[in-house]
Design brief:
The complex is a heterodimer of chains A (about 300) and B (about 250).
Chain A: E1 2-13, E2 16-27, E3 31-35, H1 42-49, E4 57-62, E5 65-66, H2 71-76, E6 78-81, H3 93-103, H4 108-121, H5 137-149, E7 155-159, H6 167-182, E8 186-190, H7 194-200, E9 203-208, E10 211-216, H8 218-223, E11 229-235, E12 251-255, E13 258-263, H9 266-279, E14 284-290, H10 294-302
Parallel strand pairs in A: 3-8, 3-9, 6-7, 7-8
Antiparallel strand pairs in A: 1-2, 1-4, 4-5, 9-10, 11-13, 11-14, 12-13
Helix pairs in contact in A: 3-4, 3-5, 5-6
Chain B: H1 6-24, H2 28-46, H3 53-82, H4 86-91, H5 96-122, H6 133-154, H7 162-178, H8 191-198, H9 201-213, H10 221-245
Helix pairs in contact in B: 1-5, 2-3, 3-5, 3-6, 3-7, 3-9, 5-6, 5-10, 6-9, 6-10, 9-10
Classes of the chains: A alpha/beta (about 300), B mainly alpha (about 250).
């Protein structure tokens, strides 16, 4: 059985079509990445999938249950971490988790065990009684994730779960996603972080202007654009973009103390760089070639370079 | 939602009610406009004047119930939208109907709880009697329901600003107390005032309390009950329609 299945999903806001005839399938046990530029329709799609919004037409099934005919049964199967939504600031972490458990009808004893486990897993045991409004953004997000997984959902929806988090909190979120997936949950992950999607997801779906423009395994998506590769180079002193004025270099982007050069002929670019560096007496401190990235695929597919 | 989901819906209403009670009963706007304001109105209009308090007590009780039961509802949805908890709430196994009913019940419990306390406390100072206990209970239940439903309806405008919604709700609630037979008994009203009174649901609550406590009423208690049931249903339905239309705003 598919964990998520949508058919011809359509949602309009006035004259704007936010989601246009989207059909997608997420297999049970899969980590599914949903990518797209700002305003592409990611959050609207997720709200349709989680029953927050009702589509103008089309259907959504969560573990085979039609969410718009049986919203409560379908929602019982899922946990949701909305992008902008947070937990109750006036309640403590523990109270928020209990409230969430009550919403899913968990018996008290089961709930207490689950809440204890999650507080410990999220590193919040010591602050369990403090009001969430006193927490940092990362800690609030941990409580938010805890609320979504307290009942061990079959399907977990996460909308930009690592956005704006510090490294520790980000790692914890990613570990939790992996852990939930290992325990059998299907993950539907909306993210701006393409590297995160590349790292975590078995399937990536790219949406642009309300329409799905690509859906495949990350490696296969990259191969769609394997004519474009990149060379990452750093020098022992700062250089300007003029250094990369060569017909073999399609695009040059500064990346911290390095430059990333996009090319369809890495051999030519490597020889050019070595020759030019020698000519200008510049030392090369590192030189790495790499295949097409998912980011490149994303940029090419969505046409927003 | 199908019949099989009714137990889930009832559980949702219960959990939302408890959440609302815990989070919103002690919020300053609820205490100010739900509790202190009707007391101040009582002191301003009834205390120090040569009025028969026992005669006006049903009207005061109706006013207390009206203010308390309708003060929680307007706060909840705008507060949740402002604090960005509304989308998460919607993603739980609840529907918008469940949320509205949870808000109505929370408002109702607040209204009935405070009003019963006020009634019990008042019996120490005012010689109030109950002519018809059945009508008295009905007045409490239907009054609570209709006023709490009005509270949920007042929360429906697309706003994530609780102060704005509270101002709007008071703009609606305050005029009602002056045209509903609270300060001027219905029997003494005439002309446009009386016509306006017919359009206020509070009029029928005051009248039902009069029937329950004094044994006399301007309308038949059956009419009072029918109107209160009707307006409760209409308020909940209107809240549902408006909140569905405004759902995206504030998510």
């Amino acid at each position: 059985m598919n964990a998520i299945e949508t058919k011809h999903l359509l949602k309009r806001f006035g004259t704007v079509t936010a989601v246009n005839d989207i059909s997608l399938t997420v297999k049970e046990g899969e980590i599914f990445g949903f990518l797209g530029p700002n305003g592409a329709g990611k959050t609207t799609t997720m709200r349709l999938l989680t029953g927050v919004l009702t589509p103008d037409s089309g259907s959504v099934r969560i573990t085979g249950i039609d969410i718009h005919r049986h919203p409560l049964d379908a929602k019982m199967q899922m946990g949701v971490i909305p992008e902008n939504s947070t937990v109750y600031g006036d309640l403590s972490a523990e109270q928020n988790l209990h409230l969430s458990g009550q919403m899913y009808g968990m018996p008290r004893a089961v709930r207490e065990k689950s809440v204890d486990d999650i507080l410990s897993q999220m590193g919040l045991s010591e602050k369990r009684h403090l009001p969430v409004r006193t927490f940092s953004k990362g800690m609030k997000q941990r409580v938010s994730i805890g609320c979504a997984i307290v009942h061990r959902p079959k399907v977990l929806f996460l909308d930009e779960p690592t956005s704006g988090l510090d490294v520790q909190s980000r790692r914890l979120v990613i570990e939790t996603i992996r852990h939930m997936n290992e325990e059998g949950s299907t993950i539907f992950l909306t993210t701006h972080n393409i590297e995160e999607a590349n790292m975590l997801c078995q399937t990536v779906c790219i949406i642009n202007q309300g329409t799905i423009v690509a859906q495949d395994a990350p490696e296969r998506l990259k191969k769609m654009f394997d004519t474009t590769q990149s060379v990452e180079v750093s020098f022992d002193r700062p250089v300007t973009r003029e250094l990369f004025a060569d017909e073999g270099i399609l695009r040059a982007e500064p990346c911290g103390d390095k430059w990333r050069l996009y090319t369809d002929n890495p051999d030519h670019v490597l020889k050019y760089l070595v020759g030019r560096a020698a000519l200008e007496s510049i030392g090369i401190t590192s030189l790495v070639t790499s295949g097409p990235s998912l980011e490149e695929a994303f940029v090419r597919i969505t046409g927003c370079a | 939602m199908c019949v099989m989901e009714i137990p889930l819906a009832l559980r949702g209403i219960l959990v939302i009610t408890r959440k609302n009670m815990r989070l919103y009963y002690t919020k300053p706007p609820v205490l100010m406009f739900g509790l202190l304001f009707p007391l101040f109105m009582f002191f301003a209009f009834f205390v120090g004047r040569k009025l028969d308090l026992a005669t006006f007590f049903p009207a005061f009780l109706a006013m207390m119930l009206f203010f308390t039961a309708s003060s929680v509802g307007p706060l909840i949805t705008p507060w949740e939208k402002r604090e960005k908890t509304y989308e998460r709430l919607l993603s739980y196994p609840v529907t918008q109907d469940t949320i509205i009913l949870g808000d109505v019940v929370a408002g109702g419990v607040f209204g009935i709880g405070i009003s019963i306390l006020v009634w019990i406390a008042s019996t120490l100072f005012v010689p109030v009697s109950i002519a018809n206990p059945g009508f008295f209970v009905l007045a409490f239940i239907l009054g609570t329901l209709s006023c709490a439903a009005l509270g949920a309806l007042l929360a429906s405008p697309a706003s994530d600003s609780p102060p704005n919604v509270m101002i709007f709700s008071n703009l609606v609630r305050f005029p009602l107390i002056f045209i509903s037979g609270i300060f001027v008994p219905l029997a003494q009203m005439q002309g446009p005032g009386l016509t306006l009174a017919y359009f206020s649901p509070l009029t029928y609550l005051v009248d039902l309390f009069n029937a329950a406590m004094g044994g006399t009423s301007a309308f038949s208690p059956a009419v009072d009950c029918g109107v209160l049931i009707g307006v409760s249903a209409a308020f909940i339905l209107a809240a549902r329609i408006i909140q569905t239309r405004n759902l995206v705003k504030g998510l």
